[in-house]
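Incident log entry.

Two folding requests arrived from the same account within the same minute. Monitoring flagged them as a possible duplicate submission, but the sequences differ. Recording both here for audit purposes.

Request one:
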Amino acid sequence: MPFSFHGIDHIQLAAPKGCESEARHFFSNILMWQEIPKPEALQKNGGVWFRCGAHQVHIGVDPHFTPAKKAHPAFYVQNLEDLREHIVANGYTVQEDALLPGAERFYVMDPFGNRLEFLEWMHTENHVR
């Protein structure tokens, strides 16, 4: 029986033990993502889950945590400039990047040092989805 991929269900970002409060502040209050409940069987592991558009972002506790400074998820955003202004107004630094043709984008480090990319395609014909 052939199989097929339908996309990404969720991504997981690692964070240190005790990260939940900071994660909730950044992902809920700054990025305005909705927190979603973790299954009861996984709650003992710590961490917190969020909804980002049609996808989920799971913040998982890693006892040997090291932030991902190069590998990163990229989040497709409408009204990227509004998000940039909101993030900066809340005290976070953005790293601009104009190297991807047809897109505007920037990077932000989450509270744990993980690199996050936010981008908006300026012309949909340049981006195959």
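Request two (distinct sequence, not a duplicate):
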Amino acid sequence: MSKRFVVISGCSGGGKSTLVAELGRRGYGIVEEPGRRVVEEERAAGGTALPWVDMEAFLRRAIDMALADRAGSTSQSGWVFFDRGLVDAASALEALTGEPILAALGAEHRYHPCVFLAPPWPEIYGTDADRRHGFDEAEAEYRRLTHAFPRLGYETVILPKAPTPARADFVLSALAELA
């Protein structure tokens, strides 16, 4: 387990990437969302491991990328903030296929015991070329994650619906209180 690796997870379109970018601007190590990077790589290569083409292949690529991200982040010092991570992809694959992958991967590759969840926030939710699912699917994803993290022994902290700088302050303050 690395208590320096902090996951920002939760609802699609809930402001996670914007928050992680803000933490990066403040000098902290960050890791961009595996799913977005998988889509970018698949599009560039003409691949089919895209969530709207082959969800299982997409999730397996996201799991591989999340594992590589964890391994590659060990050389960074201080807090490292992950825009999603292994639990997100593994819980989605388990929900899709029924394959009991979450507990095995989640137990072996731990993050900080406190995970920050971005709640559904319809006022900022939007779709784009890479996020094609609607708000109902985003809410279902959020509900799945609110069960997956505690099932693995993580404490979840819901992010406030607040401007990005205030959210970053909230995360850093919560981590300081836990230290």
